[in-house]
């Protein structure tokens, strides 16, 4: 088995490296909204609410820049409340003064939603990270929004439970951020979306009111299910301060297989067969193209999972990661073995390796999870996170590659801005990640890709955001996935709850 370092979080960014361009320089047509401007008296008020040590005005570059180093805001202050009532008081003050706010969790978002655009006040939830309660019979967990996903899952592991969401940024992202983005992740196939597992939410509304809906009921048909409004609202309707979530029992037996196949058709065939034959133990089904393996190898500096002692990446055009989880190791092993044997016999699978222990399981997952960060290794990345009918999923990568070639933007030398597009994602959820790896961010590339990609998705009845959200990147493109009536209702809701538009402006809609 290969050896990789397990990297659960995201790499520390080097802020001393080449400065990220200000968002307002990249998009010079942006206009600052009619908001108040931060004054010394505001800082005094914030200090009186939070204490001096939770109000930051120096060394706040990291809160202004996003994970992809694509967007940079100009906030002058970062606030780190420790309680819901502090969040409420801050928001009330900002609303009275019409100061815009950018709520921020772990700042791992991939659509530019988590960083300010102009001088919004950053409200970071990282000071609120207490587990509030856990019921060992029902599996209902109540946490502060700032709890880190990975630490929360480690807490649950000790109790025999698992958090119903897992993703590559688990070491940095926060539960509040996960809920605010309605993150999908690696095991949605097994545990479903947060719209199902979140039972309750506590949030501070734009006028400072505390919306307390921290329920722990699986069934509750008493009126509108208001908590759903906050799941996926990306900080535009309220600041989430607490989450109640139903956690499943942690599977005792977990297997991971990493496979090589000869075509995207073979990926689909393997998926259909896995659903039929692995059925209840299938917990994840991920695919990766060869280009994604190339960037990953460069980034992780480790041998490929199927390399067998060589330094090369085997010549398969597509790779699959299958995870099974259940309660009986012998049963699951036998089922997976038979599935792999028959798939090799009929030629659907050409090559593969299966993890033999927990460390190898993590290593194989690390290889899949690494691609997101690896894609920006040459300088930058344009990310498209889309839902499409399974049969069309990879066609978008081919279409994007062709379009970039026609525009003469792809090449091996530095004069070309684009290195290559890579495709991978959650086949089990019909979710493709198209990452166009670039040496630098340029308007030319962006114009060739957008709105072309969004139009393509709309023509093929997909969604322009499967799981990362709209943020800043997609705010002008919602109409490719939502009708006029749907957009009008969203705008009405926003206007009703946030008439001053202070929460996360310039994003979403
Ligand atoms: P942030 O990035 O800080 O914020 C994201 C958005 O939510 C912003 O609009 C912000 O204003 C808002 N927000 C944050 N906290 C709150 C709060 N408490 N109240 C209200 N609004 C808030 N996403 C997936 O869906 N699936 C994946 O598999 C996946 N993998 C990833 C892998 C990597 C390596 C990286 C870097 C990102 C990945 N993401 C994935 C993106 C993703 O959205 C998240 O990482 C995560 O859900 C964001 O959480 P966060 O705490 O970092 O939020
Ligand atoms: C993943 O599935 C994440 O790895 C990140 O959703 C995808 O970076 C991306 O485009
Ligand atoms: Zn994903």
TrEMBL record:
PROSITE patterns: FAD_PCMH. SUPFAM superfamilies: FAD-binding/transporter-associated domain-like, FAD-linked oxidases, C-terminal domain. Its cofactor is FAD. It comes from the Eukaryota. Residues 71-250 form the FAD-binding PCMH-type domain. It catalyses: (R)-lactate + 2 Fe(III)-[cytochrome c] = 2 Fe(II)-[cytochrome c] + pyruvate + 2 H(+). Keywords: FAD, Flavoprotein, Oxidoreductase. One of its GO terms (cellular component) is mitochondrion. Belongs to the FAD-binding oxidoreductase/transferase type 4 family. PANTHER family: D-2-HYDROXYGLUTARATE DEHYDROGENASE, MITOCHONDRIAL. This is D-lactate ferricytochrome C oxidoreductase. It comes from Kuraishia capsulata CBS 1993.
């Amino acid at each position: 088995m290969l050896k990789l370092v397990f990297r659960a979080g995201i790499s520390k960014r080097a802020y001393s490296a080449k400065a990220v361009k200000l968002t307002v320089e990249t998009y010079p047509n942006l206009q600052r909204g009619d908001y108040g401007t931060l004054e010394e008296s505001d800082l005094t008020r914030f200090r009186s609410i939070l204490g001096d040590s939770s109000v930051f005005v120096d060394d706040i570059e990291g809160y202004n820049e996003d994970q992809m180093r694509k967007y940079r805001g100009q906030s002058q202050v970062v606030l780190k409340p420790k309680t819901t009532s502090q969040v409420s008081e801050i928001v009330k003050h900002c609303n009275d003064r019409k100061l815009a706010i950018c709520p921020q969790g772990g700042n791992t978002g991939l659509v530019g939603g988590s960083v300010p655009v102009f001088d919004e006040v950053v409200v970071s939830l990282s000071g609120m990270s207490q587990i509030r309660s856990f019921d060992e019979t029902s599996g209902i967990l109540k946490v502060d929004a700032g709890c880190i996903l990975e630490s929360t899952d480690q807490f649950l592991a000790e109790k025999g439970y698992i958090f119903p969401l897992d993703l590559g940024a688990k070491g940095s992202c926060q539960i509040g951020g996960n809920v605010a983005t309605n993150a999908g992740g690696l095991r949605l196939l097994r545990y479903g979306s947060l719209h199902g597992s979140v039972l309750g939410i506590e949030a501070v509304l734009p006028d400072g009111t505390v919306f307390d809906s921290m329920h722990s009921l699986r069934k509750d048909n008493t009126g509108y299910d208001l908590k759903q409004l906050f799941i996926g609202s990306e900080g535009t309707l309220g600041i989430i301060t607490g989450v109640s979530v139903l956690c499943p029992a942690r599977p005792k037996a977990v297997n991971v297989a990493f496979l090589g196949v000869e075509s995207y058709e073979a990926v689909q065939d393997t998926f259909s067969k896995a659903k039929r034959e692995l059925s209840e133990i299938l917990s994840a089904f991920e695919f990766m193209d060869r280009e994604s393996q190339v960037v990953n190898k460069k980034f992780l500096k480790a041998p490929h999972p199927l390399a067998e002692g060589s330094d090369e990446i085997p010549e398969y055009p597509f790779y699959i990661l299958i995870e099974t989880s259940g309660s009986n190791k012998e049963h699951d092993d036998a089922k997976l073995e038979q599935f792999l044997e028959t798939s090799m016999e009929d030629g659907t699978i050409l090559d593969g390796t299966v993890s033999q222990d927990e460390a190898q399981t993590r290593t194989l997952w690390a290889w899949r999870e690494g691609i997101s960060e690896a894609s920006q290794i040459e300088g930058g990345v344009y990310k498209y996170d889309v839902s499409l009918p399974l049969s069309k999923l990879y066609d978008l990568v081919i279409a994007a590659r062709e379009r970039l070639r026609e525009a003469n933007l792809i090449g091996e030398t530095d004069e070309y801005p684009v290195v290559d597009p890579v495709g991978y994602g959650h086949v089990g959820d019909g979710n493709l990640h198209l990452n166009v790896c670039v040496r630098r961010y340029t308007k030319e590339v962006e114009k060739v890709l957008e709105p072309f990609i969004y139009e393509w998705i709309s023509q093929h009845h997909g969604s322009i955001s499967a799981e990362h959200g709209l943020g800043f990147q997609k705010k002008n493109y919602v109409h490719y996935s939502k009708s006029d009536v749907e957009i009008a209702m969203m705008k009405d809701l926003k206007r009703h709850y946030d008439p001053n538009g202070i929460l996360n402006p310039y994003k979403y809609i």
